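subagent[fold] <- orchestrator: predict structure for attached chain, return tokens only, no commentary.
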Amino acid sequence: MILENVTLARQIDIVFREIKEELALLTSGTVFVQIRNNVIGKFGVRAFPLESKGNQMQKMELGLSEEELQTFRHTAMESLKLKRWTHGEISFEFAMRQNKLCTSVTFESNYNMSSLMEELNPNKKKD
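subagent[fold] -> orchestrator:
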């Protein structure tokens, strides 16, 4: 599959299907996708798999349900309507609070100064 021909929304869908089992074990964390030319390269989950209550450390309880996973995936796909760049990273934070899924989205755009300088000075030869 050539990803340049796949919409970014479809790529996000593929990401969420790939990490579904991991999210089903977590109650909070961050899903990240790194994007170059509107193609997802690296993606994954940042999470703390242990939590403490007083002096005791324990594994997180059950993670996101199927319904919560679908809601989270839908939120991620809808957020793409606000993206206005081709290179960067999107972070989708999630946490269960009082049995409700809370999410937030952070966009990080990336630019390359050398590429910009080449565009501004197309006639200048490289050494």
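orchestrator: received. Logging for downstream: The CA atoms of residues 54 and 96 lie 19 Å apart. The first helix runs from residue 8 to 18.
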